Amino acid sequence: MKKWISALLALCLLALAACTNEQTAAPQKQSVANETTKEAKTEAPASASAEVPAKVKKLKVALIMQMSIGTFSTQYIEGVKKQVEAFGGTVQVYNSDNDLAKMASNLDAAVNAKVDGILIDHGRAEALKNGVDKAVKAGIPVVAFDNDLRIPGVTVIDQDDYSLAWKSLKTLGEDLNGKGNIAVVWVGGFAPMERRSVIIDAFYKRYPGIKEVARFGTASANTALDTQAQVEALLKKYPNKGDLDAIFATWDEFAKGAVKALEQAGRTDIKVYGIDLSNEDLQLMQKENSPWVATAAADPAEVGKVQTRILYQKAAGEATPDVFSVEPYLVEKETLPKESITMDKLSQYINGWGTSKAAYSPWMTKLEKEKK
């Protein structure tokens, strides 16, 4: 009996050790996977009726933006406009030039103008909460993108920044075989950047052989040019092959500046891994010998369309989620064709890209036909 009990205890200890080792091997990867799964289940419910609610016809929509910099923002705005116009509505864009006080003022102006719906792009809750509260009390539906608002009745959507950062960083870690020196281009003060920073910290625990030798970044009217100058200075500090292996850019404007600096310096030994994607970015990635080898992104136009559809669902009186994540994808240079392509062709090479029907109620098809 004693021998049987001893053998049983030994088996239990071996099983426990195996579980512990498995959890230790990739704790952050598992955490990100769980987060992504939770977000993916948050589907925007659709009405069973195909009849167009009278409340959604000819809506006047306000898009309140913290800033409009780069081609990502351009394509995001294009997505919003296309979807609103397809539904027979109109949209006015308020650009706040990265000034939160101005953004709050623009929000108040939209509420006072008694618009039918408000879309918010970026911004911070401390600057916008009062204005959003006024909108909600006035019965104006609100949907925010990449924001930290937590107000009952307001839906906040994002690109699943945890998954975005992990997809790009995991590719970087695997390409470096878990060892090397990297620089990170990042800036605080933006909700998506704060979320991406969480995964950067986790990345170093998963890949302890990868060292961060520099972190910098600014958001300005000339972000790409500023980043190019910063990377040029960085290269002077690390002039030799092997000093610096990769640059992780948390925004495509950062990636564009980094790529141009590397190309001008002829540094083909340093690779760029980014977040976000646009037509201009695709051209940079597809160039021969481009250092930009991978980026994680959601279709910016699709983000704008999904955000708009959720707003229309709210206007129709349908139940909508408090949070919703648009599915991101990993785009690698090696999967792209040699000939130049644009974002509307990317679905031919990235399965699922730009084909989302999230937050699409049956009556929306009829509403679009009525517009035509």
Automatic annotation (TrEMBL):
Signal peptide: 1-25
Cited CDD domains: PBP1_methylthioribose_binding-like (cd06305)
Family, similarity comment: Belongs to the bacterial solute-binding protein 2 family.
Record field: compositional bias (Polar residues): 26-35
Subcellular location: Cell envelope
Species annotation: Ectobacillus ponti
InterPro entries linked to this entry: Bact_Solute-Bind_Prot2, Peripla_BP_I, SBP_2_dom
GO molecular function annotations of the record: carbohydrate binding
Classification lineage: Bacteria, Bacillati, Bacillota, Bacilli, Bacillales
PANTHER family for the chain: ABC TRANSPORTER PERIPLASMIC-BINDING PROTEIN YPHF (PTHR30036:SF7), D-XYLOSE-BINDING PERIPLASMIC PROTEIN (PTHR30036)
Key words, A-Z: Signal
Name of the protein: Sugar ABC transporter substrate-binding protein
Limits of the Periplasmic binding protein domain: 63-318
Any one annotated GO CC term: outer membrane-bounded periplasmic space
